């Protein structure tokens, strides 16, 4: 039974799939103080949060069983992603599930600003009738600058177009073509400052966007501009905004999100030209059901079928790429497991190369599988696909991944080389159409070996009788040989044998083999059964 903790107010309807699933037990404890959360987090396999719970490194220190942190929403800035990644915890979110609600709130905020609705409401409900005080402006034919043309920015732009506004969009990913198709103009931040009557921000809060709208930027804006932030507190510097509101440079601001939440900047909150809401962008029945439903379904999939769709700390790959990579996923981990056994010690440097068709795909998932295979040998079960890169760096191991779309004799080919001082071990592998996975290179020798559970790697001199002596020694220990491959550099020179065996060959067997005339080294290489495909 997997234990799920829900530590923010999340829609029960959206959580139905988890409540009804026999393998999941859900504890709902919204509003837990951090120290209480830290005290109980160790009992849980997954944590579901909105934006209130701060999932800090300190809390994660105790999260020994946690495999998933699910953000029922978009922004993950309340989660210490790095700390989660280090611990191998998958962080997922629900992108898109609250897009429409956030875009609709943005439009409501813009209209409220243009027509002074909140202040007019407050005055009228007090019994006043101040028709002259609340003269507004039309949005029709005004220019709206949208900073961040992702999902929400795009929906806002579409809605604003129907109000007859001219839209200037800024986003590093916005192309002229897409802007043209949408009926908007691609603009720079400075062009937005100079021309926009309304500016709305829809970026995540990241290093590049923190304080994006600051004193310097506000000084460049059109006097009387109106500014909206329904994305994240901190994208607009609150104190700079207050200064610009006081000077009249900014005519009004509508703010849903704050530098600290609950909001406490009274100069901003009480300013007469400011409209504020308590982070309500996603607070609709529909958005809350959708975000909870999406993360519930994904948590079930992760635990039941290991399929991850929206991980923030894992490479995102399309279904089509996933299909192409699928046959290589287990092979990649096997290559790591074999390479580290061949090296017999921890590597100082890992080199991974992809050649042929596979080099044209996004291969980070395969690299993570290779690294997992390598690192698990010394670090055990703490290694997973999430933390593999981190752990490698933590261990001070250098790495290099190269890609060459030119084929190396196979449609796709992967090679892993581990170095430590002058020692090196390498494994090259491919998938042969119709035949499955094959190891085709071992320590620079060409071989053709199916990755099976029990492998024996022998280094010997290329002298007559070697194969017979190895075969009869294994026979003495009742070990049946499945396949045998021999590779040599030169006639009479150094050679290798790679055998697949029906059982393990350890201890005395290896001692017996190493005592054979002409045999330099014998190494038993093991692949975990669950990682080995049924022989075809
Ligand atoms: N107020 C609320 O309750 C809600 C707030 N949000 C916030 O809205 C923001 C946007 O959400 P989505 O549109 O779903 O995300 P998205 O990922 O679809 O779009 C974000 C866009 O920002 C762009 N961007 C990144 N850096 C930029 C920069 N320096 N300048 C300009 N653009 C930049 C990206 O290229 C991307 O296109 C997020 O911060 C999210 O947390 C989302 C939902 C509800
Ligand atoms: O959960 C919420 O209400 C906040 C939504 C939000 O800010 C987000 O999804 O980024």
From TrEMBL:
Recorded metabolic or biological pathway in which this protein acts: Amino-acid biosynthesis; L-serine biosynthesis; L-serine from 3-phospho-D-glycerate: step 1/3
Protein family per UniProt: Belongs to the D-isomer specific 2-hydroxyacid dehydrogenase family.
Catalysed conversion reaction: (R)-2-hydroxyglutarate + NAD(+) = 2-oxoglutarate + NADH + H(+); (2R)-3-phosphoglycerate + NAD(+) = 3-phosphooxypyruvate + NADH + H(+)
Pfam family, one: 2-Hacid_dh_C
InterPro entries: ACT-like_dom_sf, ACT_dom, ASB_dom_sf, D-isomer_2_OHA_DH_cat_dom, D-isomer_DH_CS, D-isomer_DH_CS1, D-isomer_DH_NAD-bd, NAD(P)-bd_dom_sf
Keyword terms of this UniProt record: Amino-acid biosynthesis, NAD, Oxidoreductase, Serine biosynthesis
TM segment ranges: none
Annotated ranges, domain ACT: 455-530
BP terms from Gene Ontology: L-serine biosynthetic process
Keyword check for Cell membrane: no
Record's keyword annotation contains Cell cycle: no
EC number: 1.1.1.95
Function: Catalyzes the reversible oxidation of 3-phospho-D-glycerate to 3-phosphonooxypyruvate, the first step of the phosphorylated L-serine biosynthesis pathway. Also catalyzes the reversible oxidation of 2-hydroxyglutarate to 2-oxoglutarate.
Name of the protein in question: D-3-phosphoglycerate dehydrogenase
GO molecular function, one term: phosphoglycerate dehydrogenase activity
